[in-house]
Amino acid sequence: xxxxxxxxxxxxxxxxxxxxxxxxxxxxxxxxxxxxxxxxxxxxxxxxxxxxxxxxxxxxxxxxxxxxxxxxxxxxxxxxxxxxxxxxxxxxxxxxxxxxxxxxxxxxxxxxxxxxxxxxxxxxxxxxxxxxxxxxxxxxxxxxxxxxxxxxxxxxxxxxxxxxxxxxxxxxxxxxxxx
Length: 179
Hints:
By secondary structure, the chain is of the alpha+beta class. Helix content is about 55%, strand content about 20%.
């Protein structure tokens, strides 16, 4: 019995060879794409981004300067108004109080408000003398507290041509009211 020693013929496996070649080509293409983007495309896009950021900062800088100028002007106006507001008495409390003192059937016009003298002059019109008397009673009640009114004078009470009553009212205000 003789044993032959001969090299075995390997069967060529084309499928494995083809798979190896396709994998190698894909790997080479992936490296090529990576190097293209890292060496050419990414630096070009980075330079474009830097340029656009510079343009945006330049344009934004002009807007910021304009906004700062507007804000400085607004600050100047606010500071000017602040000085006026702090150095003048507050008249808003007067209007709230005047609404409380006013008779609902009396219509006031010809309003004059002298803050320095703390004096208010108004002209009033109403339907009859009864409303004038009720207005006087309201003012007397307020005068008794001395919180808002120091003195008042009603003058020139007259019958109007249309059947109503007209009068002038001078009120001297308490300094507490204008604080």
